[in-house]
Design goal:
InterPro entries: HAD-like_sf (IPR036412), HAD_hydro_PyrdxlP_Pase-like (IPR006384), HAD_sf (IPR023214), Pase_PHOSPHO-typ (IPR016965). This is PHOP2 phosphatase. The structure is a single chain. With about 240 residues, this protein is an alpha/beta fold. It has a domain at about 5-15 and about 75-125 and about 145-240: HAD superfamily/HAD-like (Rossmann fold). The protein contains 10 helices and 8 strands. Strand 7 (about 195-200), helix 9 (about 205-215) and strand 8 (about 220) form a beta-alpha-beta unit. Helix 5 packs parallel to helix 10 (about 230-240). The termini are close together. About 35% of the residues are buried.
Length: about 240
């Protein structure tokens, strides 16, 4: 009996957006208007690439970025929840699927000593160039019209489950914890026995409820959370059963 926990990162594990938090490193803690206005829907990764160039051009170095990123607060109750999962790893496999990047997530999890809680992190690959600039790439290519160009979370989840099955691992239940519009595609892939946990008041909750109103509800059960303690309470019930 094993459960798979799938976490988004921004506004789910941490209570902010890691990509917008990095702007605190910019001169006067803001971006010039022409850079801010250069974002095109579905092309966030390209936009962040330009932001990182701007930071590099302004002499922002890796250690300053790291210091800034590790001050991001975790969502209410999340430290308790991740501690609980860490103590029960024999029951839970735990992955992150996020539109952030490997450098930011690695910094934040390691600083709080939570990197061992997660079996795998699926996010946009990032690295510092020889000139000290942070560069970010697309996670993968896909053909899903619903998702941003660089990442379809449903594809990631499906490929992970297929790989696990090849290893002889199947899950009693998948619990998907997220908040954003790009979490809807993987939630629609979940089966009747699985559970989606959208964060209260965020886009994912609104999109799931719109689907229910248009009489095409998601197959899985839905449990809304506002603090990660709500998630922990559910997981405690799950392992009691």
């Amino acid at each position: 009996m094993k459960f798979l926990l799938v976490f988004d990162f921004d506004h789910t594990i941490i209570d902010e957006n890691s990509d917008t938090w990095i702007v605190k490193c910019a001169p006067e803690r803001k971006l010039p208007n022409e850079l801010r206005n250069s974002y095109q829907p579905g092309h966030w990764t390209e936009y962040m690439g330009r932001v990182f160039v701007y930071l590099g051009d302004n002499g922002v170095k890796e250690d300053e970025m790291k210091r800034t990123m590790t001050t991001i607060p975790f969502t209410a109750g999340m430290i308790d929840l991740l501690g609980f999962i860490g103590e029960n790893k024999e029951l839970f496999d735990c992955i992150i699927v996020s539109d952030s990047n490997t450098v930011f997530i690695d910094w934040i999890l390691k600083a709080a000593d939570f990197h061992k809680v997660f079996d795998e992190v699926f996010t946009n690959p990032a690295a510092f160039s020889s000139t000290g600039y942070l560069t970010v790439q697309h996670f993968h290519a896909h053909h899903c019209a619903k998702c941003p160009k660089n990442l379809c979370k449903r594809k990631v989840l499906k490929e992970f489950l297929d790989k696990q099955l090849e290893r002889g691992v199947s899950y009693t239940q998948i619990v998907y914890i997220g908040d954003g519009g790009n979490d809807l595609c993987p939630v629609m892939f979940l089966k009747k026995n699985d559970i989606a946990m959208p964060r209260q008041g965020y886009t994912l909750e609104k999109k799931i409820s719109q689907l229910a109103q248009s009489l095409s509800p998601v197959q899985c059960s839905v449990l809304i959370w506002s603090s990660a303690i709500d998630i922990m309470s559910y997981l405690k019930l799950l392992i009691k059963e």
